[in-house]
Amino acid sequence: FSGFAAMLTESQAEAIAKFPEVATVEPNTFHETHTTRSWDFLGLDHNQPAQQPGLLKKAKYGEDVIVGVIDTGIWPESRSFDDKGYGPVPARWKGKCETGEEFNATSCNKKIIGARWYGRGISAELLKGDYKSARDNNGHGTHVASTIAGGEVQGVSYGGLGMGMARGGAPRARLSIYKACWVGGSCSGAAVLAAVDDAIHDGVDVLSLSIGGAGPQFPGTLHAVQRGISVVFSGGNDGPVPQTVGNALPWVTTVAASTIDRSFPTLISLGNKEKLVVRTELSFLLEVCVHCFSFSVIC
Ligand SMILES: *[C@@H]1O[C@H](CO)[C@@H](O)[C@H](O)[C@H]1NC(C)=O
């Protein structure tokens, strides 16, 4: 097809849609977040001069911090979770690596030090379309885990855009995976509670939950915080109005985002010789895209 992406007002979109040559004008849709620059943008630069170490270096890149991630599981073969160069699993760790479909003891390593999954009480229909194990059939859990603690992977791009090193915020931290969300991103409250309970007993230092949608019903997280675990939530993507932040429980840290300092300009030449510069703003940071009113026009 021939077409382009553009920032249009509602009335511009309507006017363009009326041209007989235009097949369709579609409002933008949202997919998973993709970027290789968020952490540098936040000032957590990876390459810091020895005489001026920043927060990331002072924190030893997260060395020996154990982060529990409650989500759709993980794709353990992803290069972000390579355990080359890691020391032994911290001796205080009490978690375990549960095996299951396409996930055996070798799926855990010195980076993914724990994996559990919660299939009880999940409908047979949901289970059928997913791996009965901590393996991620959705992608969200793998995305979240690598955003938090993925190791350094060079030469990553999104279809050639944004070429660079992909890494997590704390690239040396260890991960413990709790799959409480099943295919389609549906997370049962009971499964989440069981996962929080296990994570507390396993000995995680940080718990991360990028889930929402059912209101702030995460009672187990209060107990985690009482045990000295930092609990971090995503702020959500659903509005209903700009600046809406979900999961605003008073005892947790809720992470939202606004923008990033990158854009990908593309020159478009129209048939009438008019040239337009179109900017694709990858305005994604962690979880939240702030209301991007862009449209794709298919001619
Ligand atoms: C399970 O373990 C074997 C080695 O015993 C390995 O070859 C295989 O790839 C593993 N399967 C998965 C899905 O991890």
TrEMBL record:
Residues 62-257 form the Peptidase S8/S53 domain. One of its GO terms (biological process) is proteolysis. GO terms for molecular function: serine-type endopeptidase activity. Keywords: Hydrolase, Protease, Serine protease, Signal. InterPro entries: Peptidase_S8/S53_dom, Peptidase_S8/S53_dom_sf, Peptidase_S8_His-AS, Peptidase_S8_subtilisin-rel, Peptidases_S8_3, S8pro/Inhibitor_I9, S8pro/Inhibitor_I9_sf, SBT. Residues 1-34 form the Inhibitor I9 domain. Pfam families: Inhibitor_I9, Peptidase_S8. It comes from the Eukaryota. Belongs to the peptidase S8 family. This is Peptidase S8/S53 domain-containing protein. It comes from Aegilops tauschii subsp. strangulata (Goatgrass). The lineage of its organism: Eukaryota, Viridiplantae, Streptophyta, Embryophyta, Tracheophyta.
